[in-house]
Amino acid sequence: MTRRTCASGVMTCVVFFLVSLGCSHAEAATPHTNVDAKPPDTVLFERAMGAMKNSKYFVARALLENLINSYPDSDYVPGAKLSIGDAWYAQGAFQQAEAEYRDFTTFFPPQPGVAKAQLRLDSIRKKSKNLGHLQPGFGDS
């Protein structure tokens, strides 16, 4: 539990640092309020997708978790949750990916990404069987 709390604290600091860098740069470049400025949830999501594209999965997860925690009513929350699963999956951390995909299918059943999450869950199940063991939560049915 302490390990998870420490990791969460570190991720929060990283996100705060990254966001503050972006904000301070934006303020210095444009001293007047920019009417065309993007909402902060959009900025977080776009930065996270950029990090994913560059295989910076830790940064992407930190940004996405910050988005989910800071803007729980954002339209980006379902995509953020699915993308956290994708980041874990891309790193081969299948237990963490499985948990995220299961949460996604539970909390966002009408979303188009449910089919993708189900495919990933099936893939994780097959990988675990091919390795000769089952991941927790999967049974022989």
Shape: globular
Structural class: mainly alpha
Low-confidence stretches: 1-7, 13-29, 134-141
CATH architecture: Alpha Horseshoe
Largest sheet: none
The helix tally amounts to 6
The CATH topology corresponds to Serine Threonine Protein Phosphatase 5, Tetratricopeptide repeat
Helix content, binned percent: over 70%
Q: In angstroms, what is the radius of gyration? A: 17 Å
- Listing every helix as H and every strand as E from the N terminus to the C terminus, the arrangement reads HHHHHH
Provide the CATH superfamily: Tetratricopeptide repeat domain
CATH hierarchy class name: Mainly Alpha
Mean pLDDT: 79
Count of separate structural domains: 1
Topology, number of strands: 0
Beta-strand share of residues: under 5%
User: What gap, in angstroms, lies between the N and C termini?
Assistant: 32 Å
Question: What can you tell me about this protein's structure?
Answer:
This protein has 141 residues and is mostly helical. It has a single domain (2-22, 37-130), classed as Alpha Horseshoe (Serine Threonine Protein Phosphatase 5, Tetratricopeptide repeat). The chain contains 6 helices and no strands. Helix 1 crosses helix 3 (57-70) and helix 3 (57-70) packs antiparallel against helix 4. The longest helix is centred in the first third of the chain and has 28 residues, at 2-29. It is globular and about 55 Å long. It starts with a helix and ends in an 11-residue tail after the last helix. Mean pLDDT is 79; it is low at 1-7, 13-29 and 134-141.
